[in-house]
Specification:
- The protein is 38% helix and 10% strand.
- It has a 5-stranded mixed beta sheet with strand order 3-1-2-4-5.
- The protein is elongated.
């Protein structure tokens, strides 16, 4: 008796099935990637805000120990402190200065420059820190509305010299975006008008506000300088 050996039938994928799977993967990627980008943006925004809150608290502790005076910038000390950024004056009040001084949303190459040059992502308002009448926290008429620190624009190379921004020149939107990375927290690359995104801002009472770039431009267009010390 002859027995016939039957081999199990092997099933392969048809071209249509392969194309269908590829299309499904592409659709899922299209749906998921923006969500991942948005989640990363929010995580960086929150970490940046935490950095600024810690800096705000450190500034308050510093002023308590120095009769209300804020730490000097390179503008007020000349070359005496050019070897390191103003933020090192707060080192005793910060747990991890090398983490706090860098915005997590800054591009990796910029972060590396900031760390190696002893600089910081955050820059001070010259109208407060470089003017005798406001260099003391007790002289600020309205601390809740007085801007202290911003995220330095990518138009400015990280250095100890860029430890303050010239808010007195913020008479135009172009001057503001030259100093401030107004859309630091965004998904994707810079928009040409710089209006797609937001940034965190530290105020003299210690609170941090996240302002969309569009709102900041509205203030500028209405003739309001967001860096002015309100009376």
């Amino acid at each position: 008796m002859i027995h016939t050996i039957r081999h199990p039938r092997q099933h392969g994928f048809t071209l249509l099935e392969v194309l269908s799977v590829c299309a499904l993967i592409a659709i899922l990627a299209w749906l998921i990637l923006p969500t991942l980008g948005a989640a990363k943006k929010e995580a960086n925004r929150a970490k940046c805000a935490t950095n600024l809150r810690q800096i705000g608290l450190a500034l308050q502790l510093y002023t308590q120990d120095h009769n209300g005076n804020f730490p000097p910038t390179t503008h007020t000390t000349g070359s005496r402190h050019m070897e390191e950024s103003w933020i090192y004056g707060l080192a005793t009040y910060l747990d991890n200065i090398d983490e706090v001084r860098v915005c997590p949303a800054d591009p990796a190459p910029r972060q590396e420059k900031i760390r190696s040059r002893k600089a910081t992502s955050y820059s001070l308002n010259e109208l407060v820190f470089d003017r005798e009448e406001y260099r003391n926290i007790y002289r600020l008429p309205r601390p809740t509305r007085t801007l202290l620190a911003v995220i330095l624009s990518e138009n400015r190379s990280p250095s100890t010299g860029w430890d303050h921004v010239h808010c007195s020149l913020w008479s135009s939107w172009q001057n503001i975006i030259n100093d401030v990375e107004v859309d630091r927290h965004r998904v994707g690359s810079r928009a040409s008008d710089r209006l797609s995104g937001s940034a965190n801002y530290l105020y003299a009472d210690g609170h941090v506000a996240n302002l969309p770039a569009r709102e900041l431009k509205k203030l500028s267009s209405s003739g309001i300088n967001p860096g002015d010390v309100p009376l």
